[in-house]
Amino acid sequence: MRLKNILLVVEDIEKSISFYKELFGLRVLNDFDGNVILTEGLVLQDRKIWEHLIEKEVTYGGNASELYFIENDLEDFQEKLDHSSFEINYAHKLKTYDWGQRVIRIYDPDGHMIEIGESLDVVERRKAENSEEK
After folding, report:
1. What is the rounded CA–CA span in Å between residue 33 and residue 16?
2. CB-count burial class (<10 Å; 0-12, 13-18, 19+) for 54
3. HSE of 94 in the Cβ direction (CA atoms, 13 Å)?
4. Which of 7, 24, 79, 129 has an alpha carbon within 20 to 30 A of 39's alpha carbon?
5. Do 46 and 13 fall within a single domain?
């Protein structure tokens, strides 16, 4: 068995497509009228379709999960966010954790959390460079 896709329930599918295209470079692979498959295995589904399938109401938000993207030029990505056509809702702007990884956390238009972080290879390389300088 293998994980095939991640599905996010969204209120405005066109707005969500634009968000993921503009900021993360994802493209539409298939559009099944309220079910859209993007590159990288992300699926967007219209809230009404999802509620019909599960016979329950959707609750957005919660901070219990996140999508994770790797971006090694976080200053450039922060600039992209600052000039985006979307009003970016931050969990936090660029910060560095104790283990040396730098990350940005934002919410998509429906409140799904997204982490944009450096690869651990970059973190290890920076640590090695800093220890060589000492």
Report:
1. 14
2. exposed
3. 14
4. 79
5. yes
Q: Are 16 and 109 in contact (CB under 8 A)?
A: yes
Rounded Cα gap, residues 10 and 108, in angstroms: 10
Q: What is the pLDDT of residues 38-83, one digit of tens each?
A: 999 999 999 999 999 999 999 988 888 999 999 999 999 999 999 9
Residues 94 and 55 in one domain: no
pLDDT category at 134 given cuts 50, 70, 90 is low
Spatial CA neighbour of 40 closest among 60, 20, 12, 63:
20
DSSP summary character for residue 12 = -
